[in-house]
Amino acid sequence: MASPGYPAYCVLLLVTVFTLSPDSSFCSAAHQSKPQHKAALFVFGDSLFDSGNNQYLNASSGMGAGSTKLPYGETYFKHATGRVSDGRIVPDFIAQFAKLPMPPPYLQPGAHNFTDGVNFASAGAGVLPGTFPGAIDFPTQLSYFKAMEKSLRQRLGEKETRKLLGRAVYLFSIGGNDYFSYASKNPKALQIYKRQYVAMVIKNMISALKEIYNLGGRKIAFQNVGPLGCVPATKAMNPSLGSKCSEEPLTLARLHNRVLFSYFEKLEKSLPGFKFSIFDYYNALGDRINNPSKYGFKEGKAACCGSGAYRGSNCGGGKNGTAYDLCSNPNEYVWFDGAHTTESTNHQLAELIWNGPQKITRPYTVKQLFEHA
Protein backbone atom coordinates (compact mmCIF):
# COMPACT_ATOMS: atom_id res chain seq x y z
CA MET A 1 0.00 0.00 0.00
CA ALA A 2 1.16 3.53 -0.75
CA SER A 3 1.56 5.59 2.39
CA PRO A 4 -0.61 8.72 2.75
CA GLY A 5 2.49 10.89 2.31
CA TYR A 6 3.05 9.68 -1.26
CA PRO A 7 1.82 11.72 -4.24
CA ALA A 8 -1.66 10.99 -5.52
CA TYR A 9 -0.33 10.03 -8.98
CA CYS A 10 1.36 6.97 -7.44
CA VAL A 11 -1.95 5.66 -6.14
CA LEU A 12 -3.53 6.30 -9.54
CA LEU A 13 -0.71 4.42 -11.29
CA LEU A 14 -1.10 1.45 -8.97
CA VAL A 15 -4.79 1.27 -9.83
CA THR A 16 -4.55 1.82 -13.56
CA VAL A 17 -1.39 0.03 -14.65
CA PHE A 18 -2.34 -3.59 -14.33
CA THR A 19 1.15 -4.89 -15.09
CA LEU A 20 2.66 -3.54 -11.89
CA SER A 21 3.47 -5.75 -8.97
CA PRO A 22 1.28 -5.20 -5.90
CA ASP A 23 4.03 -3.49 -3.91
CA SER A 24 4.75 0.22 -4.01
CA SER A 25 8.31 0.02 -5.35
CA PHE A 26 7.38 1.66 -8.65
CA CYS A 27 5.87 4.65 -6.86
CA SER A 28 8.85 4.88 -4.56
CA ALA A 29 11.24 5.00 -7.53
CA ALA A 30 9.07 7.49 -9.42
CA HIS A 31 8.83 9.69 -6.38
CA GLN A 32 12.56 9.57 -5.68
CA SER A 33 13.62 10.12 -9.31
CA LYS A 34 11.42 13.14 -9.86
CA PRO A 35 13.93 15.94 -10.51
CA GLN A 36 14.05 18.57 -7.82
CA HIS A 37 15.53 21.14 -10.21
CA LYS A 38 15.45 21.31 -13.96
CA ALA A 39 18.89 21.75 -15.55
CA ALA A 40 19.32 24.58 -18.06
CA LEU A 41 20.91 24.21 -21.52
CA PHE A 42 23.45 26.77 -22.69
CA VAL A 43 24.54 26.52 -26.32
CA PHE A 44 27.74 27.84 -27.91
CA GLY A 45 29.15 27.44 -31.37
CA ASP A 46 28.84 28.01 -35.08
CA SER A 47 26.19 27.70 -37.79
CA LEU A 48 25.44 24.08 -36.89
CA PHE A 49 24.03 25.29 -33.56
CA ASP A 50 22.99 28.91 -34.34
CA SER A 51 19.26 29.28 -33.64
CA GLY A 52 19.12 32.75 -35.16
CA ASN A 53 21.62 35.09 -33.51
CA ASN A 54 23.12 36.18 -36.81
CA GLN A 55 19.90 37.70 -38.08
CA TYR A 56 20.26 40.36 -35.37
CA LEU A 57 23.77 41.36 -36.42
CA ASN A 58 24.62 44.47 -38.43
CA ALA A 59 23.42 43.78 -41.97
CA SER A 60 26.64 45.24 -43.37
CA SER A 61 28.59 42.33 -41.88
CA GLY A 62 26.86 39.97 -44.30
CA MET A 63 26.57 37.32 -41.57
CA GLY A 64 22.84 37.69 -41.05
CA ALA A 65 21.76 36.91 -44.60
CA GLY A 66 20.75 33.65 -46.27
CA SER A 67 19.03 31.69 -43.53
CA THR A 68 16.52 34.49 -42.88
CA LYS A 69 14.34 33.53 -45.84
CA LEU A 70 12.70 30.41 -47.20
CA PRO A 71 13.37 27.61 -47.97
CA TYR A 72 15.29 27.70 -44.67
CA GLY A 73 12.91 26.67 -41.92
CA GLU A 74 10.30 25.28 -44.31
CA THR A 75 9.97 21.79 -42.83
CA TYR A 76 9.13 22.54 -39.21
CA PHE A 77 8.71 26.26 -38.65
CA LYS A 78 7.13 27.05 -42.05
CA HIS A 79 9.17 30.26 -42.08
CA ALA A 80 12.84 31.17 -41.80
CA THR A 81 14.18 31.54 -38.26
CA GLY A 82 17.88 32.12 -38.89
CA ARG A 83 18.65 28.42 -38.45
CA VAL A 84 20.77 27.08 -41.32
CA SER A 85 18.59 24.06 -41.99
CA ASP A 86 15.15 23.22 -43.33
CA GLY A 87 13.92 22.84 -39.75
CA ARG A 88 15.18 22.17 -36.25
CA ILE A 89 18.86 21.92 -35.38
CA VAL A 90 20.62 19.65 -32.89
CA PRO A 91 20.24 21.89 -29.78
CA ASP A 92 16.49 22.11 -30.42
CA PHE A 93 16.21 18.34 -30.18
CA ILE A 94 18.50 18.12 -27.14
CA ALA A 95 16.25 20.63 -25.39
CA GLN A 96 13.20 18.57 -26.37
CA PHE A 97 14.75 15.39 -24.96
CA ALA A 98 15.55 17.27 -21.74
CA LYS A 99 11.97 18.60 -21.57
CA LEU A 100 13.13 22.19 -22.01
CA PRO A 101 11.96 24.89 -24.40
CA MET A 102 14.18 25.51 -27.43
CA PRO A 103 17.00 27.79 -26.24
CA PRO A 104 16.29 31.20 -27.81
CA PRO A 105 18.99 33.26 -29.53
CA TYR A 106 20.79 35.45 -27.00
CA LEU A 107 20.49 38.48 -29.30
CA GLN A 108 16.75 38.04 -29.83
CA PRO A 109 15.04 41.28 -28.74
CA GLY A 110 12.90 41.27 -25.62
CA ALA A 111 13.25 40.02 -22.07
CA HIS A 112 15.15 36.79 -21.38
CA ASN A 113 14.66 34.59 -18.35
CA PHE A 114 17.82 32.48 -18.88
CA THR A 115 16.82 29.93 -16.20
CA ASP A 116 16.07 27.30 -18.90
CA GLY A 117 19.11 28.32 -20.95
CA VAL A 118 19.92 30.37 -24.03
CA ASN A 119 21.78 30.00 -27.33
CA PHE A 120 24.95 32.05 -27.99
CA ALA A 121 26.00 30.29 -31.24
CA SER A 122 26.69 32.23 -34.42
CA ALA A 123 27.04 31.11 -38.03
CA GLY A 124 30.64 31.61 -39.10
CA ALA A 125 32.00 31.63 -35.55
CA GLY A 126 35.44 30.30 -34.81
CA VAL A 127 37.38 29.62 -31.64
CA LEU A 128 39.89 32.25 -32.73
CA PRO A 129 38.89 35.90 -33.13
CA GLY A 130 38.65 37.00 -36.74
CA THR A 131 38.16 33.53 -38.25
CA PHE A 132 35.18 34.95 -40.14
CA PRO A 133 34.88 38.71 -39.48
CA GLY A 134 31.34 39.70 -38.61
CA ALA A 135 30.42 36.47 -36.84
CA ILE A 136 30.15 36.24 -33.05
CA ASP A 137 33.42 34.47 -32.31
CA PHE A 138 33.90 32.23 -29.29
CA PRO A 139 35.52 34.92 -27.10
CA THR A 140 32.54 37.21 -27.76
CA GLN A 141 30.09 34.40 -26.99
CA LEU A 142 31.95 33.92 -23.71
CA SER A 143 31.59 37.65 -22.96
CA TYR A 144 27.82 37.32 -23.55
CA PHE A 145 27.74 34.38 -21.14
CA LYS A 146 29.51 36.49 -18.50
CA ALA A 147 27.00 39.30 -19.00
CA MET A 148 24.17 36.79 -18.58
CA GLU A 149 25.76 35.40 -15.42
CA LYS A 150 25.95 38.91 -13.99
CA SER A 151 22.28 39.48 -14.83
CA LEU A 152 21.33 36.23 -13.10
CA ARG A 153 23.31 37.15 -9.98
CA GLN A 154 21.50 40.47 -9.76
CA ARG A 155 18.14 38.72 -10.10
CA LEU A 156 18.62 35.42 -8.25
CA GLY A 157 21.55 36.13 -5.96
CA GLU A 158 25.00 34.57 -5.87
CA LYS A 159 24.00 31.22 -4.34
CA GLU A 160 21.08 30.41 -6.65
CA THR A 161 23.00 31.51 -9.73
CA ARG A 162 25.87 29.22 -8.78
CA LYS A 163 23.43 26.33 -8.37
CA LEU A 164 21.76 27.04 -11.72
CA LEU A 165 25.08 27.20 -13.57
CA GLY A 166 26.36 24.10 -11.78
CA ARG A 167 23.31 22.03 -12.77
CA ALA A 168 23.30 23.30 -16.36
CA VAL A 169 24.63 21.46 -19.40
CA TYR A 170 26.86 23.39 -21.82
CA LEU A 171 26.64 22.23 -25.45
CA PHE A 172 29.29 23.19 -28.03
CA SER A 173 29.94 22.93 -31.75
CA ILE A 174 33.02 25.02 -32.54
CA GLY A 175 36.33 24.72 -34.40
CA GLY A 176 35.27 23.71 -37.90
CA ASN A 177 35.37 27.26 -39.23
CA ASP A 178 38.89 27.78 -37.89
CA TYR A 179 40.04 24.81 -39.96
CA PHE A 180 38.05 25.77 -43.06
CA SER A 181 39.74 29.16 -42.88
CA TYR A 182 43.24 27.78 -42.33
CA ALA A 183 42.96 25.19 -45.11
CA SER A 184 41.77 27.78 -47.64
CA LYS A 185 44.60 30.19 -46.77
CA ASN A 186 47.34 27.57 -46.35
CA PRO A 187 46.63 24.77 -48.84
CA LYS A 188 50.24 23.55 -48.84
CA ALA A 189 50.95 23.85 -45.11
CA LEU A 190 53.44 21.40 -43.66
CA GLN A 191 52.23 18.92 -41.05
CA ILE A 192 54.18 20.64 -38.28
CA TYR A 193 52.37 23.92 -38.90
CA LYS A 194 49.01 22.18 -39.00
CA ARG A 195 49.75 20.63 -35.61
CA GLN A 196 50.76 23.98 -34.19
CA TYR A 197 47.57 25.58 -35.45
CA VAL A 198 45.37 22.81 -34.04
CA ALA A 199 47.14 23.12 -30.68
CA MET A 200 46.49 26.88 -30.68
CA VAL A 201 42.78 26.38 -31.45
CA ILE A 202 42.32 23.76 -28.71
CA LYS A 203 44.29 25.71 -26.10
CA ASN A 204 42.12 28.77 -26.73
CA MET A 205 39.04 26.56 -26.45
CA ILE A 206 40.23 25.03 -23.17
CA SER A 207 41.02 28.45 -21.76
CA ALA A 208 37.43 29.58 -22.44
CA LEU A 209 36.04 26.39 -20.85
CA LYS A 210 38.05 27.08 -17.70
CA GLU A 211 36.42 30.51 -17.50
CA ILE A 212 32.99 28.88 -17.71
CA TYR A 213 34.10 26.43 -15.01
CA ASN A 214 35.22 29.30 -12.77
CA LEU A 215 31.74 30.81 -13.08
CA GLY A 216 30.14 27.53 -11.99
CA GLY A 217 29.83 25.42 -15.15
CA ARG A 218 30.56 21.74 -14.59
CA LYS A 219 28.93 19.67 -17.35
CA ILE A 220 30.40 20.19 -20.81
CA ALA A 221 29.23 18.48 -24.03
CA PHE A 222 31.20 18.87 -27.26
CA GLN A 223 30.75 17.48 -30.71
CA ASN A 224 34.10 17.04 -32.40
CA VAL A 225 34.92 18.54 -35.81
CA GLY A 226 33.10 16.93 -38.73
CA PRO A 227 34.42 15.64 -42.07
CA LEU A 228 35.10 19.14 -43.41
CA GLY A 229 36.49 18.01 -46.75
CA CYS A 230 33.29 16.10 -47.58
CA VAL A 231 30.74 18.90 -47.30
CA PRO A 232 29.09 19.70 -50.66
CA ALA A 233 30.39 23.30 -50.66
CA THR A 234 34.01 22.17 -50.23
CA LYS A 235 33.75 19.58 -52.98
CA ALA A 236 31.99 22.01 -55.31
CA MET A 237 34.94 24.41 -55.07
CA ASN A 238 37.30 21.74 -56.42
CA PRO A 239 35.76 19.86 -59.38
CA SER A 240 38.95 17.80 -59.82
CA LEU A 241 38.06 15.88 -56.65
CA GLY A 242 35.29 14.00 -58.40
CA SER A 243 33.52 11.85 -55.81
CA LYS A 244 36.43 12.13 -53.35
CA CYS A 245 36.73 14.50 -50.40
CA SER A 246 39.23 17.33 -50.00
CA GLU A 247 42.09 15.98 -47.90
CA GLU A 248 43.48 19.20 -46.35
CA PRO A 249 40.40 20.09 -44.23
CA LEU A 250 39.99 16.41 -43.33
CA THR A 251 43.56 16.25 -42.04
CA LEU A 252 43.00 19.24 -39.78
CA ALA A 253 39.73 17.79 -38.47
CA ARG A 254 41.39 14.46 -37.67
CA LEU A 255 44.31 16.16 -35.90
CA HIS A 256 41.85 18.16 -33.80
CA ASN A 257 39.71 15.16 -32.91
CA ARG A 258 42.72 13.00 -32.07
CA VAL A 259 43.87 15.28 -29.24
CA LEU A 260 40.53 16.70 -28.09
CA PHE A 261 39.59 13.79 -25.83
CA SER A 262 42.96 13.77 -24.06
CA TYR A 263 42.67 17.48 -23.29
CA PHE A 264 39.25 16.90 -21.75
CA GLU A 265 40.53 13.98 -19.69
CA LYS A 266 43.18 16.28 -18.24
CA LEU A 267 40.49 18.83 -17.38
CA GLU A 268 38.44 16.19 -15.60
CA LYS A 269 41.45 15.21 -13.47
CA SER A 270 42.43 18.78 -12.62
CA LEU A 271 39.01 20.42 -12.11
CA PRO A 272 36.85 19.00 -9.28
CA GLY A 273 33.33 18.15 -10.42
CA PHE A 274 34.10 18.60 -14.13
CA LYS A 275 32.22 16.11 -16.34
CA PHE A 276 32.26 15.91 -20.11
CA SER A 277 30.76 14.28 -23.16
CA ILE A 278 32.35 14.17 -26.61
CA PHE A 279 30.26 13.16 -29.60
CA ASP A 280 32.10 11.68 -32.59
CA TYR A 281 30.43 13.92 -35.15
CA TYR A 282 33.21 13.18 -37.68
CA ASN A 283 32.39 9.49 -38.02
CA ALA A 284 28.65 9.71 -37.31
CA LEU A 285 28.13 12.20 -40.14
CA GLY A 286 30.74 10.58 -42.37
CA ASP A 287 28.93 7.24 -42.26
CA ARG A 288 25.69 8.95 -43.28
CA ILE A 289 27.43 10.66 -46.18
CA ASN A 290 28.91 7.40 -47.44
CA ASN A 291 26.05 5.04 -46.56
CA PRO A 292 22.87 7.13 -46.67
CA SER A 293 20.46 4.23 -47.24
CA LYS A 294 21.66 2.61 -44.01
CA TYR A 295 20.06 5.55 -42.16
CA GLY A 296 16.95 6.04 -44.27
CA PHE A 297 18.32 8.63 -46.72
CA LYS A 298 18.45 8.49 -50.51
CA GLU A 299 21.26 11.01 -51.02
CA GLY A 300 24.38 11.57 -48.91
CA LYS A 301 26.71 13.66 -51.05
CA ALA A 302 24.61 16.33 -52.79
CA ALA A 303 22.53 18.92 -50.95
CA CYS A 304 18.76 19.27 -51.13
CA CYS A 305 18.99 23.00 -51.83
CA GLY A 306 21.45 24.96 -53.96
CA SER A 307 23.06 25.26 -57.36
CA GLY A 308 26.16 23.99 -59.13
CA ALA A 309 28.07 20.80 -58.36
CA TYR A 310 26.52 18.87 -55.47
CA ARG A 311 24.10 21.83 -55.10
CA GLY A 312 26.95 23.20 -53.04
CA SER A 313 26.10 26.90 -53.09
CA ASN A 314 23.38 29.56 -53.28
CA CYS A 315 20.55 27.87 -51.40
CA GLY A 316 17.77 30.46 -51.25
CA GLY A 317 19.45 32.40 -54.03
CA GLY A 318 22.46 33.53 -52.00
CA LYS A 319 23.36 37.20 -51.74
CA ASN A 320 22.65 37.90 -55.40
CA GLY A 321 19.38 36.02 -55.77
CA THR A 322 20.94 33.38 -58.00
CA ALA A 323 18.66 30.62 -59.30
CA TYR A 324 18.83 27.43 -57.28
CA ASP A 325 17.29 23.98 -57.17
CA LEU A 326 15.26 22.60 -54.29
CA CYS A 327 14.48 18.94 -53.67
CA SER A 328 10.90 17.87 -53.06
CA ASN A 329 11.63 16.04 -49.78
CA PRO A 330 14.51 17.17 -47.52
CA ASN A 331 13.98 14.09 -45.34
CA GLU A 332 15.62 12.03 -48.10
CA TYR A 333 18.85 14.07 -47.91
CA VAL A 334 21.70 14.17 -45.39
CA TRP A 335 22.54 17.76 -46.45
CA PHE A 336 20.09 20.62 -46.75
CA ASP A 337 22.51 23.17 -48.22
CA GLY A 338 26.21 23.16 -49.09
CA ALA A 339 27.45 22.87 -45.51
CA HIS A 340 24.47 22.15 -43.24
CA THR A 341 22.40 19.08 -42.54
CA THR A 342 18.66 18.54 -42.80
CA GLU A 343 16.31 18.36 -39.85
CA SER A 344 16.13 14.58 -40.30
CA THR A 345 19.91 14.27 -40.04
CA ASN A 346 19.97 16.65 -37.08
CA HIS A 347 17.42 14.51 -35.26
CA GLN A 348 19.52 11.38 -35.73
CA LEU A 349 22.70 13.16 -34.58
CA ALA A 350 20.92 14.62 -31.55
CA GLU A 351 19.75 11.15 -30.53
CA LEU A 352 23.37 9.97 -30.57
CA ILE A 353 24.52 12.96 -28.52
CA TRP A 354 21.67 12.39 -26.06
CA ASN A 355 22.09 8.67 -25.50
CA GLY A 356 24.40 7.12 -28.06
CA PRO A 357 26.69 4.11 -27.56
CA GLN A 358 30.12 4.54 -25.94
CA LYS A 359 31.95 4.23 -29.26
CA ILE A 360 30.21 7.38 -30.51
CA THR A 361 29.46 9.47 -27.35
CA ARG A 362 31.77 9.18 -24.36
CA PRO A 363 32.57 9.00 -21.51
CA TYR A 364 29.09 10.30 -20.62
CA THR A 365 26.07 10.88 -22.80
CA VAL A 366 24.29 14.22 -22.56
CA LYS A 367 21.35 12.40 -20.98
CA GLN A 368 23.69 11.28 -18.20
CA LEU A 369 25.02 14.81 -17.79
CA PHE A 370 21.48 16.10 -17.31
CA GLU A 371 20.82 13.38 -14.75
CA HIS A 372 24.05 13.99 -12.87
CA ALA A 373 23.47 16.06 -9.74
Could you describe the 3D structure shown?
It contains 12 helices and 10 strands. The radius of gyration is 22 Å and the shape is globular. It is an alpha/beta fold. It is 39% helix and 10% strand. Helix 3 (90-97) links the parallel strand 1 (41-45) and strand 2. The relative contact order is 0.12. It starts with 7 loop residues before the first helix and ends with a helix. The strands form 3 sheets. A 6-stranded mixed sheet has the order 2-1-3-4-5-10, sandwiched between helices. The protein has a two-stranded parallel ribbon with strand order 6-9. Helix 4 packs across helix 5 (158-167), helix 6 (176-185) packs across helix 9 (247-270) and helix 7 packs parallel to helix 9.
